[in-house]
Amino acid sequence: MASAQSLRLASSTLHNNERMPRHHTDEGQGTKKNISPPLEWYDVPEGTKSFALVVEDIDAPEPDGPIVPWTHWVVVNIPPSVNKLPEGFSGKGEEMGGDYAGIKEGHNDLKVPGWRGPRLPNHGHRIEFRLYALDDELHLGNKVTKEKVLDAIEGHVLGEATLTAKY
């Protein structure tokens, strides 16, 4: 295992600061729409007991106000034995079984659990995937939200990695 500074997040379909493929967005077509992207991580900090993932549009404006990040996906209690989420993972953790069965998907800003890709009135937004290596599992009840996750991980982050895609 490696130091906290070296945790890395990667994807075979998302490349840092490049355009997100359409099938990961809400603008895809039919079954090629809102497919959660594949993610994998490397150089896990020693002592990691779980991972949490928060995905946000960091350029989302309020209708008449400031920029307030829009949550697309929240995933918690990813065990340290798991080093990737395959493409289309969202909604299929229990079905996949094994170490994936205990992973919990939280509510996005559409107030539903799971991945919901961007559908925006204009393009040029940055979608930030932030992975946290934690020294414990999170116990957040039935309705997991980004706010609950960010509060609960305070003081428990061993490492953090970011991947940013454009939409």
From TrEMBL:
Q: Which branch of life, at top level?
A: Eukaryota
User: What is the name listed in the Swiss-Prot or TrEMBL entry for this protein?
Assistant: Uncharacterized protein
